[in-house]
Description:
The chain has three domains: 8-45; 54-109, Orthogonal Bundle (Multidrug-efflux Transporter Regulator, Chain: A, Domain 2); 122-163, no CATH class. 54% of the residues lie in helices and 10% in strands. The protein has helices at residues 8-18, 23-30, 34-45, 57-64, 68-78, 95-107, 112-122, 150-163, and strands at 54-56, 83-86, 90-94, 143-145, 148-149.
Amino acid sequence: MASTLWTKKEETWLISYWVYKSPEKIAEKLGRSVGAVKKKMYKLTGSANTGRGLESIHSLSERTGYFEYQIRRAIKHLRVKPVKVGGPVGYQLKDYQVEQILQWLTETDLDEERLRKIRLKDQGLWSKKFTECRDCGTTERPHYGLGLCRPCWNRFTWKRRKNI
Ligand SMILES: [Zn+2]
């Protein structure tokens, strides 16, 4: 085996794909031996196998640009159970969990209104206090006010106006 020096590009590629691809696949792609790939990964990260297929929330955040709180929210929403590895790293995500999380984050428009609804839905709520519209029982239409959807709220306030 020709022991050529690693280029920066190869190193970057190795780090990026380490959690997704097997050392065998990476070795094949780079035209290097599996041993050389593992050894290089150990040199770069200080771990050859412990990190294989696992990624911390912090590292995922660094790699993707999503904030850690966004990732935590996705974890909670998707009910993903990270692997407890102990030590300063704490929880680690398996590669399929990372994929789930990234898919959810890209599909979800993370504006505040949307996040508020997701939070409420996670708690089984439709509005801050109610699980559905108090009058018609819809959860399809958004909450408008007083525990009512817009049409019910209109009806309610119209009745009130009429009765005055
Ligand atoms: Zn209603």
